[in-house]
């Protein structure tokens, strides 16, 4: 996935989201707001008042999501999030099926113990491919132990499927705004919004963020 895709639209403009709620061809108009983009996602990294926000739509089994995590994410956070220029939110887009939903559910269960991001990172550190079976109860428990979770509380959360609907709702929302692959990033400030698709290098994010910092 080497091509770079940018879709820029004003944040205040009404977008047309095809929802297929009552008939196959009915569309519904919604105003896309910053709150809509970040709600229901992960705990926010960075200053909530930062001028620029990045929302990643990702899948824990996705090859290119793993590559972004491995090659770009740390540098992006260090240069922009840790310095207060950008905040960052992850939203689930589990296109690889039930195991991806299970992994996302586990990350939110870890979040109940204040360790969402530690668990999120542990999933990507131990990535084992797409639809290979590496996401299972045993592996998720191992990751939970590694990041220091109370295992009985974590397992109860998982067995209750506590966050399954939240994960599926994130994917549904992604569909309504045109997300169709992972990783996809929605980068925005108070005036503009840009979509970046794929495991792009840091330079691609720099170009967008630096432009938004001055707009």
From TrEMBL:
Pfam families: Thioredoxin_4
Domain of life according to the entry: Archaea
Organism: Nitrosotalea sinensis
InterPro entries from the UniProt entry: Thioredoxin-like_fold, Thioredoxin-like_sf, Thioredoxin_domain
Annotated ranges, domain Thioredoxin: 21-214
Transmembrane stretches, start-end: 5-23
Protein name as catalogued: DSBA-like thioredoxin domain protein
Family: Belongs to the thioredoxin family. DsbA subfamily. Belongs to the glutaredoxin family.
One Gene Ontology term of the molecular function aspect: oxidoreductase activity
Keyword Nucleotide-binding attributed: no
UniProt keywords, alphabetically: Disulfide bond, Membrane, Oxidoreductase, Redox-active center, Signal, Transmembrane, Transmembrane helix
